[in-house]
Amino acid sequence: MSQPDARHAPLAQIPPGIACARDYELLCEHFIPAPTLAYLAGGAGHDRTRDANLAAFDDWTIWPRLLRDVTHGHTRLALAGAELSHPFLLAPVAFQKLVHPGAETETARAAAALGACLVASTLSSAPLEDIATANADGRRWFQLYFQPERAATQALARRAEAAGYEALVVTLDAAIRLPSLSALRAGFVMPADCAAGNLQTLAASAEAFPAAPPGQSRIFQGAMRAAPGWADLDWLRSETRLPVWVKGVLHPDDAADCRARGIAGVIVSNHGGRALDGAPASLAALPGVRAAVGADYPLLFDGGIRSGGDAFKALALGANAVLVGRLQVWALSVAGALGVAHVLKLLREELEACMAQAGCATLADIGPHCLAAAHEPLAAVRAIPPHPCGPAD
Amino acid sequence: MSQPDARHAPLAQIPPGIACARDYELLCEHFIPAPTLAYLAGGAGHDRTRDANLAAFDDWTIWPRLLRDVTHGHTRLALAGAELSHPFLLAPVAFQKLVHPGAETETARAAAALGACLVASTLSSAPLEDIATANADGRRWFQLYFQPERAATQALARRAEAAGYEALVVTLDAAIRLPSLSALRAGFVMPADCAAGNLQTLAASAEAFPAAPPGQSRIFQGAMRAAPGWADLDWLRSETRLPVWVKGVLHPDDAADCRARGIAGVIVSNHGGRALDGAPASLAALPGVRAAVGADYPLLFDGGIRSGGDAFKALALGANAVLVGRLQVWALSVAGALGVAHVLKLLREELEACMAQAGCATLADIGPHCLAAAHEPLAAVRAIPPHPCGPAD
Amino acid sequence: MSQPDARHAPLAQIPPGIACARDYELLCEHFIPAPTLAYLAGGAGHDRTRDANLAAFDDWTIWPRLLRDVTHGHTRLALAGAELSHPFLLAPVAFQKLVHPGAETETARAAAALGACLVASTLSSAPLEDIATANADGRRWFQLYFQPERAATQALARRAEAAGYEALVVTLDAAIRLPSLSALRAGFVMPADCAAGNLQTLAASAEAFPAAPPGQSRIFQGAMRAAPGWADLDWLRSETRLPVWVKGVLHPDDAADCRARGIAGVIVSNHGGRALDGAPASLAALPGVRAAVGADYPLLFDGGIRSGGDAFKALALGANAVLVGRLQVWALSVAGALGVAHVLKLLREELEACMAQAGCATLADIGPHCLAAAHEPLAAVRAIPPHPCGPAD
Amino acid sequence: MSQPDARHAPLAQIPPGIACARDYELLCEHFIPAPTLAYLAGGAGHDRTRDANLAAFDDWTIWPRLLRDVTHGHTRLALAGAELSHPFLLAPVAFQKLVHPGAETETARAAAALGACLVASTLSSAPLEDIATANADGRRWFQLYFQPERAATQALARRAEAAGYEALVVTLDAAIRLPSLSALRAGFVMPADCAAGNLQTLAASAEAFPAAPPGQSRIFQGAMRAAPGWADLDWLRSETRLPVWVKGVLHPDDAADCRARGIAGVIVSNHGGRALDGAPASLAALPGVRAAVGADYPLLFDGGIRSGGDAFKALALGANAVLVGRLQVWALSVAGALGVAHVLKLLREELEACMAQAGCATLADIGPHCLAAAHEPLAAVRAIPPHPCGPAD
């Protein structure tokens, strides 16, 4: 049994020896108690989709290109009508007090410092107003879970508007969440003080099924009775002056529907493998979504980003920008705001290095032509002209 | 060497900490002596088909869908002219006294309680009449092995009719069964008191080859001389008022022949990998069988179901319902009828959760369009429109 | 370091507990000193082709078929104008005294007893005449390596004719053999008394490169100067009254050339992975060879047969019969002639069981239609009709 | 922690027991301190491209061919207007004093002795003039990194011309190099005395990013500002009488551009996986490059050659010759010039053996038709004629 108090407290400076963003994944196990780490790292069920998210990046390699002038290069992009200096957003991650006493306020300060758009979670440990204060100079969106009562949902939206959040991101893939087996087996229990930021009651029950009428299905007539529909989304759009995004899209038809219904943009995501164990990898779903929504629709990617090279692949396969979830939390656990800022800086620099090597000066230069399928030996060889090797005599 | 008596006796209640149906697979090794477990878990030969059964589910992922109203959802289906509340049947599993003194009567009670159609085995430890009594309020079919003499086969059919069984399921893939190497190596020996339910003589000889005339093949002129042919099947149909199903179908042509000859329905199965080591995975064979028999022919699936998500995939690939074999026995070993009822409840709820996430309110909504091939990175990317990423300036 | 004398001497009876032919592979390590086992089991170089030989069988699964009448079934075949009771030949394996003092005379007795055609090796420990004596009632062919001098080759052919061998099998893939790294590392040295059966000088030098003129290539102007050409093969055919086979064919064009030049038949083989490390798996090459030579040309398969199911797959992919090499030696090491006879019996029965389950009464019923590719999930699903699952209401 | 002084000093003779070129990979860990070995063996980042380089060879198998007369065989080739006795070049490898006090002068003597063209590195431990002296009778090219000032680049080119180097090889894939994680973790630090051969200042800073103007990107406005462009390459060609090659090409369009711009030839390479972690395997990129430049353009291969068989595959897929990097250094560490000469001899002999077995007498006989894709079971079987197996009666 791991002993929580044997872990290090978060550091006040960036530790030496970190060579790449992913190194925080190795470091964090010295800072996060094992049951908590199991909860945060775990996916739904047997972790199949979580693992597939990472493996999907290995299906692609990146073409290096030579002698391209990229001295005018940059990573700026226009997103939702404003400019970002780089395409890394901080994904909504709940209950950040689990790994750092400053919780989301640390993350929010890092986001502001590094120019990363912050997507704050409904399930934050800190109230959304405190997060906004810490992020005063930054860009921030609010991730919204529909509440059982519309009034509660509306109240959240109002608070987000008032606190300077610039968009609402409605997460739609979590109406039903089966528990993480690894968290269960590790004995994780949500501490009472971690989950009371924005809501009165919430706690660990977020992951249990609600009750259903006697003799009926806990799923269909229980959990899903509380799940939102298109009418709720239309209502929300009419109730707020903020643009409404949808997070949790995988199927191309759902993405096309979102566009048709006036949604501002979609985030391809499977909730980090924490929703449906057996869903496609985010990266595998991404190209189909881009094809469905067309070239000009705002499209973000979430699911398995561990390096700037991963971000490059997601951009090449159709994303305008990417969200970073678990790496954010690992860095937070190691060194608070400094850690999160550091991981963002590393990711950006890794992306720049990748772009430079691929001959891409701007994000607009990145596309499917920058990638090669990793496992297609036969395709190339069919084009070889006969007798390429000339003898000496 | 494992010590049988060091195992736990079956519990009188469901143990805590079970998070999913498959957890019974982990638990059961504390309740079943190792040689018996090797016998029950083992496949024929080197377990290739048994393992392929499970691996085949990883060839597919499930599309989550958003914002679908499934509050009217249910898992009811019409099968063989009657209604079932869910598509999980209990597969015929022989010799259940090996894991629980109550044997099949426990299973039968659980089936009745959970509304699962029970398929009782010819090789049950308990007589089929006792099973029927325990299952009085339930739905039950009888799995029939052709006996060396037609009279004996007829007697079994008569007893099944008299005891309220509603269909005969003839298993046709077990004329020759090579022993399970793992069972042999574990030193498994069938106890005398496990195998005397319906037949006078049977015991472990079920798995040995019968004798052949001197100088002739133990296979062709021995075992296969006793194997049934189409004429026997036609005879059986004429002798019984019950509908006759065939279990053990993999090849599409065999399935089409069954339909053409008046068989009520077929069960795609490779006997859990216990018949021909090297046969295709059940799930790999399923789509071809559905294509061969057409959309309206009753078709069940057996082979590797370990979760509601597995069932969802089998339904999507053409099955009307699925049979659960090994999980049934693992749950029986842990907690008797309660365990079997619990595993059925978990499976159903896992299926419902999967349906809800996939936007399917009823079984009729499930189809191949709900699945994505897990390993096709190139197919999707070819559809991406050019330059999806727009720069900031 | 393994201690040779700690091994068991060959048994005088078949040991208990053997459930399948391949079990001799597990048993033999108790009977063969580790360096010798490394030499016999090893392939050339890094064992890539040796391992690929086995892995190739997993590319295919076997369709079970139902209700076929195979009570007239048998495994007889006509090969080279005579009848064999089953399609298992004993492959030429050199230096059998390494594992049993009786060496090839044991093998020869087993072959005669089980009706297996024996292919005796030029490099046998026992003289070919002794082998013939032990095999008096059997069918036997002689595997011929071209000798540096035609007179020596002719002498071997004459002796084979005189001793009742019915065909000459010329092995053509061993002009250059790189040493087995595992044998080298295990410290294997050929004992002087193992390799003097038919030739005056031979010994371990069989695997070293011959000398070349100063400044020239040990390969091109050394080893390959001694390698036979078409003229040598034509000469051999003109010098002997026996049919001449070629062993070591993989490329379809070489097979077609053999047929065109009057060779009686070919054996698809890569020398058990002991010739060119990096050559295709035998089973992968087989279908192309069958397609090149046509349906009526005698074609044998060698390379990785470990079970009757493996033989079934080779027959389905184009072979008329198969050769068994390493299993033969493992069984010889365990129980001499009895062991070899036993492994032949097991293989035949495994093949019969496989045939019966696949609905094949005779070898002529076996073909590519009996196999399914193991890794093609998408092909089958495209044929599913829409909405196969019907709801209850 | 490994202890550098516990390693062996380089031997004065070839150690016994080396069976193939790759054995030097196993041996060298007894001669190179662990941190240095990590630095030399490591790739960029997580070693994905480095590992893919090796794995790509397993995508192909080599067809053995029978009865071909190759007694006139040789490995000579014409390259860049002169004759080489074999197609193995010594790749430019920096800082060879890390593994042997004689550094590149040892390598240069071996190259001369074995007739291997030496490609000396800008970053050699020994001055290029010393290398030339040691290689007086040999063929040598000079690998050139563009220096921050054209004058410095010009000076290097002049010195190379004066010292008898016959070509300049400009490496273009190393403008940005992320550090090797394994080297960092192993604690490798470049010794001061290893890296002062040709340049005044250099040292380990070769792998760090240069500075950028405040607020700008270390990549785009830092490292890439110093990176050469087409104009620099044109300038270099105009400044030197030597032919100019480009090393580091993977994309077919870059190769075609090189040809169009008057580059003498290109070297397909990903810097041994040390440049962009995630780039395609060299062997995977090779066929596309050959197809782009046509059959008659000089094309070399670099990336993962560990055996003569690997070289055969690269030649078959379009290369005229291959470069050997890491094996060169491993052999240097073990036995200095003798080791490097030995590994070249082994590689050549392994290639000859492979050619002889594949029926290729000269390099011109090697082509894509000599290879088979390793994983295509279905392609071949579709050609099988029906019923290949004839029964006996």
Automatic annotation (TrEMBL), chains A, B, C, D:
Active site residues of this protein: H271 (proton acceptor)
Source species: Derxia gummosa DSM 723
GO molecular function, one term: oxidoreductase activity
Family of the protein in this entry: Belongs to the FMN-dependent alpha-hydroxy acid dehydrogenase family.
GO CC terms, sorted: cytoplasm
InterPro entries: Aldolase_TIM, Alpha-hydoxy_acid_DH_FMN, FMN-dep_DH, FMN_HAD
Cofactor: FMN
Name of the protein described by the UniProt record: Alpha-hydroxy acid oxidase
UniProt keyword annotations, A-Z: Flavoprotein, FMN, Oxidoreductase
Enzyme Commission (EC) number: 1.-.-.-
Annotated positions binding FMN: 92-94, 121, 143, 171, 247, 269, 302-306, 325-326
